[in-house]
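User: Here's a chain of 470 residues. Predict its fold as tokens.
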Amino acid sequence: MTLQPDPILDLDAAALAAATRRGDLTCSEVTRTYLGRLSALNDRLHAVITVNPAAQADADRLDAVSADRRGPLHGVPMLIKDNIDVAGLPTTAGSALLAGHVPETDAPLVTRLRNAGVVILGKANMTEWANFMTLAMPNGYSSAGGQTVNPWGEGLDTGGSSSGSGAAVAARLCAAAIGTETSGSIVSPAHQNGVIGVKPTLGLVPRTGVVPISHSQDTAGPITRSVRDAAMILAVIAGPDDRDEATRRLPVPDLTVLPDVLRGAHLGVIRDENGVTPAEAAALDHLTAALLDAGATLHDVAFPSRADLNAHGWSLEVLEHEFKGDLNAYLRAVTTGPRSLQAVIDANDADPERLLRYGQTLLHAAQGTRGDATEPAYLQARERDLRLTRTRGFDPLFAQGLDLIIFPGIHGYGLAAKAGYPSLALPVTPAGAATPNGALLVAPAGGEGRLLSLAAELNRLLGGVRFPEL
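Assistant: Prediction complete.
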């Protein structure tokens, strides 16, 4: 059965906020509309683990705020990935073991969203432990929330680990969502669900109050239905936090989306990644044709360190070492549930039918390390990652004057993640395509302003985000 459309659902976050600030819509009616859609569809999609029981009351309170005090995201209903602390709601990281873990305080990025006027609808499902539990787990599965379903069709990959965030935005269960990424976990679900996903430069958004994997790669970021929305949300959540050292080293760039920036832009295009599908190649051809029509200059390039990356193989050493120490630090503050990685492993072993459907090989691998950031093997792995992705990877390309590097599909997401550079998943769905496809745009560190401006104009030229019928 197809749900009857509601005009409120057709508005992106920027348009919704403008309407509620003017008083054309009330926050109460907007939230009621989204809660109704969530109620009608979530049993089918499993995109949301927890619905916020205070969401409607929060919206009602926002309607009483005077017009001159309404924030940039006034009344915008959003979902938060369930590895991010929201006061009064469980933070499970997808694990049923943490169902009783209810933080008393918001993560700083959530506080910033609330202060900007966001209504928190609830917590989005995710791949358990942000897909760092086992190599065998399908994207979107968690013992706490079940299997997330891609709204474009059952059986399609949801992407991960911010699976519920991507699926919920595509299904219009929320106006926008927050995901987190260590390596592909924002851009992958955005790509698979046909929406916008932005992984910021490492340190632009504070990670305090976020269940971690790796302090060298973790970041939160927006998943949205327009680039304009992503820029608005990123501008709200970005900025230093006293408890996150990385945020104190990075100035916040100007995130204003500028018009008419494609003409004269110089963009590098990488076409020869391993495993590019015909659909990804077709989407890249469609995108590059639009760029040429808009006056951009394209340069076919190869990733400079590709041969060494292929010879070395893809390494998880940095993540395995950092996960143990970083997770233990977070779990020490948990009052209900396991308080260490070893306790997680032991509890899973004690209830395998419920908790170990796909195993926990990565948890064991991480526990087997010393978790010591001074260990020579760890330091060598981290130095190698930075050398092959930054100094011998992206940096020589950007030194040629290229504004962005464009990959087919989301190829290159791991390179951007290891480098700590910003990336954006952009939907590109040629006429006649039945399922989403797209491309990945990567910018230099701190280059979000240029990235967002170029992506916004390109997204408009390509016709914007499409939605599945539900």
